């Protein structure tokens, strides 16, 4: 197993004890897959708190790293990182599904997507992502663009609400939740996170469990509405092909996902690039498939028990990675 130099250990300790809540998930596993080297060129497509970006630059100080994030709040963290580390670092404000237009020309030796919401967004009540904190019902990754969650809920059709709660949130009691939301919005009662929590709690039937973790009643509904408001699955499906085209031959594309819909989308796109059936019902004959990459692990990499204990938000993370074939390896 490859180990990483002292800056990596310092980074982990700093995140754990400085009072900073952001802890990059599956960090050592990600570094091992990307294998950053001096003189390499890398892309962090989801800068967030900058934890993965910092570790990449500290591991390979003479490399080039570009980073993307659509949250304007990430720019200040990117400026701090640029002052503190060696290497050629540049930050681009925008959505990763537009990376072809955002980034300068050239290919990358490694590209990383760390999906979902960052700790900075979750822990800020004004952003409206968390059902545990009172605040405006916003949920936008970029609070300067598009409708807030409150605005989206006021305008959404029943079909859009069903898609968000049932399909994106994977909420079993979606019928009760959707009807409760429709009733609440007629009464003008969906402006804050507390409003939405009360509506969902009032709609759901509580069932006791003998063992295992118990989700907050609003967890899945918040997840589904957030995905809808930010078009997260659509953006990811558009971004992954662009990212693969930007890989150098032999380059690594790594994706950390946090719920089953993201992971399923990543898995299917990766299997297609590897020339494999995308799912059990994919009967396309093999001669019509094109193998352009090889998977670096047959199953997703998940956090250790130690990491989950240290950072409970990592518990649902799954890391998948592939390597773009070189001309000599292509069939």
SS class: alpha/beta
Count of separate structural domains: 2
Number of extended strands? 7
Number of helices: 14
At the first level of CATH, what is the class of the largest domain?
Answer: Alpha Beta
Binned strand content: 5-15%
Strand order of the largest sheet: 3-2-1-4-5-7-6
Would you identify the CATH architecture of the largest domain? Answer: 3-Layer(aba) Sandwich
Written description of the protein model:
The protein is of the alpha/beta class and 331 residues long. It folds into two domains: 6-120 and 233-324, Vaccinia Virus protein VP39 (Rossmann fold, 3-Layer(aba) Sandwich); 130-231, DNA polymerase, domain 1 (Orthogonal Bundle), CATH 1.10.150.170. Helices cover 41% and strands 13% of the residues. It is built from 14 helices and seven strands. It has helices at 6-17, 27-34, 51-59, 74-84, 99-102, 119-122, 149-155, 158-168, 174-186, 193-203, 219-230, 232-245, 260-273, 305-310; strands spanning 41-44, 64-69, 88-93, 108-114, 247-257, 293-295, 318-324. It has a seven-stranded mixed beta sheet, sandwiched between helices. Helix 8 crosses helix 11, helix 9 (174-186) crosses helix 10 and helix 12 runs parallel beside helix 13 (260-273). It is globular, with a radius of gyration of 21 Å. Residues 1-20 have low confidence and may be disordered.
